Amino acid sequence: SSVRPSVRGAVHVYVVSTAVLYGSLALFISILHNVFLLYYVETFVSIYKIDKVSFWVGEAVFLIWNSVNDPLFGWLSDRSFLSSPQSGSQVTTPEVVLKRLQALSTNGPLFALSFLAFWVAWARPGLQFLLCLCLYDGFLTMVDLHHSALLADLAVSAADRTRLNFHCSVFSALGSLSVFLSYSFWDKEDLYSFRVFCVSLAAFSIVGFFLVSRLLRRRFQKEVRVRRDEAMALKELSVGQAPLTHAENPVTIGQYLKQLSKHRNFMWFVSMNLVQVFHCHFNSNFFPLFLEHLLSDNITASTGSILLGISYIAPHLNNLYFLTLCQRYGVYQVIRWLFMLKLGLSVVMLLAGADHIYLLCIFIASNRVFTEGTCKLLKLVISDLVDEDYVVNRRPQATSALLFGMVALLTKPGQTFAPLIGTWLLCVYTGYDIFEREPVRDSLVSVPDVASGSGTPPLRLGCFYMVVFVPITCALLQLAAWSRFTLHGRKLQGIKTLRQGAQHGHLIDVKAI
Predict the structure, then answer these.
(1) Which CA distances in Å does 104 have to 36, 159, 213, 379?
(2) % of the chain exceeding 70 in pLDDT
(3) Which positions, given as ranges, span the membrane (predicted)?
């Protein structure tokens, strides 16, 4: 027993570096994905001049692919965990982690390369739009799915997962600096500088994925060898003992879906998260539009750049504070407060009106900050749902990637609905069609005459209604769904205790972060 404390101390140092490496993977994703979200719609609409039919067809196909690929990749990754193993063939946690890291080391660089396909016109706009979206989202799904699944595989307790998420937030905040820089390089008339900037980001991401995944794989390969040696020793010592587990037929996809449909907390969570995904992407897609038509006449370009950058970096920095609140009050309560805050701020802005410029600046930035901040906490909730699924269905190994994929199946349509509903709302409120090809109206941002002048022009008023009523509607729907979610408090603690007890013989020290 005198040796154990020193061993734990060594493991503690080891695990801190593992948590930092895990968090750094978020940097290589965020530096690319933030730029993609901000510019892909405007690139195809304003620069490549995609027609309305091709845009809607591309988004419709993307909606299907975007929804299907998450559970498909999750099923391919975790289907071997859905049946009880034969005696002696138990898949250990380090082996699961190695499988995730192998996928990241392969798909991470491919994700970075697919990001580059957007910024050069190499095919007809409609065809390029469709192919680029599907290719990019396929590799992004593989990267994000396995990175998210590692959160549930590396840790069980809320404190451990909160620390992992903390590191992700720090590195995601660093990754958001690419938004600050991108505003300086973005020029619709000449994309050369922006393309060089994107190539630099992609190269940095490729090198990062390669180095970090390699370091983590070496670390867990050592763990796998240790576990195998322990298993061989136990096998030699055991004399005719019955196996701890018994063989069962693998769970089919139909059986798994039936089990999931009875998972009430899962269903209420995806109902809330569908609205959340929609709202996050609505803010990302239309943030430049709101800056242009609500604030451009009253703020300088540098102020707009600062607002844009803050709206991307602040959610990650804010999340560091939210995570401390989560440790004290629980994730459920913090998310509920954020929904109420979003609703309250939107109502205040509606009552104040569109002419309070500084209040409008604060509201537009804070709306995105708190909405994105909520998104950063949802992985913790999904990890808790992984625990509940593991316990309730008595799984031999937690199917974290598959459950993350099923959540995405039901919530990612919000990503496609955001630009479609947004452009439709703009047309309803203002009568302006974003796809109109009149000489002076090639894009929304090329109509300064509509957005300027005295009073409150239709386009400006329409943008104001969009920026206010969308969060009010989203907050009301989310509060209604979240009130039915019961996996918190004593129930959550009981689930975690049961999972830790069930896996006690298989847990490794790396989980004690």
Answers:
(1) 20, 25, 7, 18
(2) 79
(3) 20-41, 104-122, 164-186, 192-212, 266-287, 299-322, 343-365, 464-482
* φ, ψ (nearest 5 deg) of residue 88: 85, -5
Output the average pLDDT for the chain.
79
Longest Cα separation, the chain: 89
How far is the C-alpha of 485 from the C-alpha of 389, rounded, in Å? Answer: 15
Judge whether 21 lies within some domain. Answer: yes
For tokens 């948590």, the residue is 19
Residue 333 belongs to a domain with what CATH number? 1.20.1250.20
More confident residue, 232 or 110: 110
Spatial CB neighbours of 111, under 8 Å, sequence gap ≥ 6: 29, 32, 136, 139, 140, 142, 143, 205, 209
Confirm if 389 and 398 have CB atoms less than 8 A apart.
Answer: yes
Residues in CB range of 351: below 8 A, 6 or more apart? none
CB of 328 closer than 8 Å to CB of 158: no
| 162 contacts 17 by C-beta, under 8 angstroms | no
Burial of 246 (0-12, 13-18, 19+ CB in 10 A): exposed
**Residue with the larger pLDDT of the pair 407 and 373:** 407
Total domain count, the chain: 1
Radius of gyration of the chain (CA): 24
Nearest to 173 by CA among 341, 316, 40: 316
Angle at 34 between CA 66 and CA 182, to 5 degrees: 140
Alpha helices in 186-263 (DSSP H): 192-237, 253-261
The per-residue pLDDT for range 139-198, each reduced to its tens digit, is 999 999 999 888 888 877 878 888 888 888 889 888 888 877 887 888 888 889 999 999
Closest CA to 435 of 51, 58, 121: 51
Please report whether residue 242 resides in a domain.
Answer: no
Q: Which domain holds residue 387?
A: 4-236+247-511
- Tell me the C-alpha distance between 115 and 131, whole Å: 12
What pLDDT score does 152 carry?
Answer: 83
Q: Is 69 helix (H, G, I), strand (E, B) or coil?
A: helix
Is residue 448 included in any domain, yes or no? yes
DSSP letter, residue 45 = I
The verdict on residue 126 lying in a domain is yes
Alpha carbon distance 32, 36 (integer Å)? 6
480, pLDDT greater than 90: yes
Average pLDDT over residues 262-278: 94
Q: Which two tokens stand for residue 11?
A: 């493991």
